[in-house]
Every structure is written in structure tokens, then in C-alpha cells.
Amino acid sequence: MGLYIILMGVQGAGKGVQAQFIHDEYGIPHISTGDLFRAMKTREDELARRIQEIMASGQLVSDEITNEVLRDRLEQPDAANGAILDGYPRNPAQADWLADYLRSRGESVTAVLLLQLDLYTAFKRAFGRVLSAETGRVYNIFYDSEGIDWHYEDHPENKYPPRVVATETATGKPLVRRPDDANAGAIIKRIDTYLETTMPLVDYYRRAGLLAEIDAAQSIAEVSQSIRAVIETSS
Q1: Residue 219 belongs to a domain with what CATH number?
Q2: Mean pLDDT in order along the chain per 10 residues (235 residues)
Q3: 117 Cβ contact partners less than 8 Å away, ≥ 6 residues apart
Q4: pTM assigned to the model
């Protein structure tokens, strides 16, 4: 049997870090539907062209097409022994399709990992992120500020809110922020979208007996250990 893990959690819960841990530990790929659709922009096969046309027209990609994209990815050789699904399913209908598809292959969802984090902490984790454009190293002005210098800088004419200015202490090189992290309104919108789309799935997988809730406020190592325990028990 393969290892099929669904990873859910609000922004700042550490999904990316824990997906990398699962990949390193169990050798299965991290499949993000957002990454899959971005990749479709550069592909030239028939499925990619259909999606390009849909996106160019401004239409929403249907569940049917989304399922087809996922099927295409799950049938790649590196996913022969399972996958970490991030951003899929987005609704109970997609969850039903996934269950049927895996059943047709003699497989099933192993576990659904819900990284639980209170929304205030989630906001601070996103709003406080700064990173090195050269190395990709991520810091946080609220939680991981050792090795950086930072301050708020007022706009010269006070037309805009103060901005975060941060540099690496050792190198003096400036750190940058992701545009959507610097926008408090965008962060709140992402949290609202997460709550709207995730809660029906939480209920769905809880009823199925597959949901494992993990405290994402723990240290990275503690979260990883909790994930390992769930997977070892479920597989």
C-alpha cells in the first residue's frame, strides 16, 4: 500500500516545512495544486492547453479539470508509492473523487494531517516573515529574529503605513518580504478563505476517522515527531 497524506493548515502553520520532512522521511513527493497549475503555463500538451484557455478566459477551473490535473500528477513515476497532497482536495466533492480514484488503484488516504494554529499566531507568522533574496533563509521579526536587525520605517509623507526594514546582522544585506505577507488585508483574506474552504473538509475527514489534529504551535521538531507518530500508526 502507498502512503497518501493530505496536509491541511492555515498559513503560518508550517505546512511547507513539514511537507519537506515527510518527503525526506518517506520518499514521497509533495504535490501542491497551486504549483501544478503554475506549471501548466509552460506545458504544451493537450491538458495544459485546455487549462491555459480556461485561465485566459477568466473562468474558474472546474472540479473535473482539477481532478484530471491531479490524476496526471499521481500517475508520474515518483508518486508510485504515494504523495503528500497540499491544497487538494478543496471541497467534499473532490474528496469523494480522490477516494474513488485511490480505491480503483487498491489504495486509500492514509491520514489527513490538520496543523492547528490559532489565527492570531497565524497572522503574526505571516506578517512577520522576512527572507534573504539570495539564500531563501526565512526569519520572523516576532519569533525568529536572532541574526537580524529590523525596525519600522515611516513613510516620508505619512501617506502609507510604516514598513518593516530588516537586514542580516552578519552581512548587512537587506531582507525582503513576500508582497502578500506585507499586506495585512491580503493575509486576513487568505485566513478567511482557508476557514471557508477547510472546515467542511475537516468535518468530512473527521467523520471518516482519518483526521489527525496536530498542535502547530509546538517546535518544528515536535510537530515532525507528532506527524511521524500519526503516519506510523496509520500506515
Answers
A1: 3.40.50.300
A2: 95 94 97 85 82 80 90 95 95 96 97 96 94 91 93 90 92 92 91 90 96 96 98 92
A3: 9, 10, 12, 13, 125, 216, 217
A4: 0.86
